[in-house]
């Protein structure tokens, strides 16, 4: 094994650009708001863990602190 990870073929950003255009026209996000919040909670948990020298941080705790 050479250590490379195959993520499949890259077809460019056209599909993403289409979704962004649809969002700007419709004002309806293509991603559920909860999923977006979970992504931000994950990033905040990573930052919090770093501030605590690598201690475990639960996503649930981050979401609760944010009021979700």
Describe the structure.
- This protein is mainly alpha-helical.
- It has a domain at 29-68.
- The protein has helices at 14-26, 33-51, 59-65.
- It is flat.
List the keywords.
68 residues, 3 helices, mainly alpha
Question: How much of the polypeptide forms β-strand, as a percent range?
Answer: under 5%
Radius of gyration over C-alpha positions, nearest whole angstrom? 17 Å
Head-to-tail CA distance between termini = 43 Å
Q: H/E series, N to C?
A: HHH
Characterize this entry briefly.
The chain is mainly α and 68 residues long. 57% of the residues lie in helices and 0% in strands.
Topology overview:
Elements: H1 14-26, H2 33-51, H3 59-65
């Amino acid at each position: 094994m050479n250590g490379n990870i195959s993520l499949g073929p890259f077809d460019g950003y056209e599909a993403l650009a289409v979704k962004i255009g649809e969002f700007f026209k419709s004002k309806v996000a293509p991603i559920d708001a909860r999923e977006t919040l979970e992504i931000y909670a994950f990033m905040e948990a990573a930052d919090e863990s770093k501030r605590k020298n690598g201690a475990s941080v639960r996503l649930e705790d981050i979401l609760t602190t944010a009021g979700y």
